[in-house]
Amino acid sequence: MAEKSGYIATSKFLIASPTKVRPVADVVKRKSYTEAMAILENMPHKGARLLKKTVKSAASNALDLNKKLDEDALFVKEIRIDEGPRLKRLWCRGRGRADMLLKRMCHITVIVDEKAGE
Q1: DSSP state of 16
Q2: Domains along the chain?
Q3: pLDDT digits over 74-88, tens only?
């Protein structure tokens, strides 16, 4: 497996469907850090709020570990949205029947790296 370079942050067991978070992640993938944060700040989706926290954490990891970096030198290298476990809940239906309500979870992994020209 190829070795990942960059600064990583993960958020696990977030109650949000991976299929709803992935389109939001595709918008900010391979953007600069400041541009990605501006986009996520103005999106109305729940997934944008979750992604914003994780991207901010990855950038914070990069700035803390490498004191020479600044925010303008960072970009979002990779965002991976993986499926987590599902919470199964009983959903009462008509005529004494029941359905299974699945509350889906996701794991978000963000890799932030410095720009090649820097």
Answers
A1: S
A2: 7-114 (3.90.470.10)
A3: 999 999 999 999 999
Residues near 19 by Cβ (< 8 Å), separated by ≥ 6?
Answer: none
Q: Do 80 and 109 touch, CB atoms closer than 8 A?
A: yes
Q: Using CA atoms, how far apart are residues 113 and 4, in angstroms rounded to an integer?
A: 10
How much is the pTM? 0.88
Question: For residue 67, which phi and psi values (nearest 5 degrees)?
Answer: -70, -15
Taking only the tens place, the pLDDT of each residue in 3-36 is: 567 899 999 999 999 999 999 999 999 999 999 9
Of the candidates 11, 114, 115, 117, the residue with the CA atom closest to the CA atom of residue 67: 114
Alpha-carbon distance of 69 to 2, in angstroms, equals 25
Beta strands in 3-73 (DSSP E): 7-14
